[in-house]
Amino acid sequence: MQSSDIQLNGWFGQTQPNLGIQRLLFNSLIQMDVATGEPQPSLAESWELTDADTVISFVLRDDVSFHDGTPMTSADVIASIETLRTEGIPSQVKSVANLVTEMDPVSDTELTITLEYAVTNLFDLFEMMPIIDDATVDQLLLGENFNGTGPFLVDDYTPGQRVDMVRFDDYWGDVAYLDSVTVTAVRDSQAMLTALRSGQAQVAVDLAPLDATAIRDDPAFEVFNAPAADAGYYVASNVNVPLLSSKEVRQAIATAIDRERILDQVLGGNGIVSSIPWTPSSAAFDESLQNFYSYDVDAATAALEEAGAAGEPVKVFYDANSGIMTGIAQVVIFDLEQAGLQPQAEPLQTADFLTRLRNGELDGLFINVHGFGQLSPATLVTGAFPFNANGNASQFDNQTYKDLANAVRVETDEAAAAENIAALNEFFLDEQFVSDLISSYHTYAISSSINGFETTILDYPILDRVYLD
Description:
3 domains; Dipeptide-binding Protein, domain 1; alpha+beta; 23 strands; 469 residues
């Protein structure tokens, strides 16, 4: 299998480099049904919510062992939560874990977790958090030991280049058919396509759309979108940059960008244009707002002139290793020039881009892709790096936004929750610290010799039942 990057770290958050690997090495307590979003058993056999949803009691499977043979127990679940809560460990569900006030290991297979208060995205925590071995946490964080419970275990690893995995014969689920899986980092989409055609690879993650189109009608391959639609492409603003501190300028930028061109020329029509961050399957998605920002270069030019921003320079950061990000950047830079700004391309290597994104160090516009539009809206507004109301890549600090995010997080009444979502969408469209462009998908291109390929709600590949003709 080939992906654009490989880094065996950052396990507690969703990251592009680990997209193809996470579910192969680790499991979580639950695994959400992709179609319904409902939690299903995984390492947890069952659970019960009590005390107004502030206490959750889990019964764990009693037949799970880590790759080194150590049995999984409730102590490992506690260690996983404590590790996720550690300062410096990035995770989009850290805010949920931080609400845990008590963890009671009733037995090796029973655990009770108490929260400060109930939240609407509790199960997103238990979907995204891998269960790790209490005894090897430090080695895992250093990238030296990957002692998971998943269907494959690490045999060899070259950071940034390659990971070789072999079947874990004592896997608690159905033992995988495949003897081994190798994931290699290939940053050029054409090289991925060549590897597929030559038989050197059987799976490619996120081929450039034009390359995917080249084999879409070839019976030797299957190209499909991961059904969760977990890829929202956006351009965001660091609001500490004087030019981008003005929401009128940010609105003008949103109006200046030709989303249809990005969809057609960069993404090959794979997705829909959208001005809001939710996937169409989300209860927060409002079709009437989908085209709120439509391409209008004259209106954008006039708005920039009125704001006194005409002719101003602005940096545009993007991941230079991604053909899609590079293509979007080219369109955005051209469109901003047409509207009267002076955009400056700032391509970065993947690791540098992600580090500066997380640390809020991109001093201009930045182009990226976010997930979480298919999960609870609370996870996006309290965890996703571009949107987190309590600290985001845009440095956007606003009490009204914090109050809205908290309301979305805690309100369970259906009517009141709908009002909160409507107010949140209105706020996003007005402030435009993140300008969503396209709601799309992670794409997998696979050899027709592969059978049984599936993905999780986070678009991680599931290879447990995959076999080759």
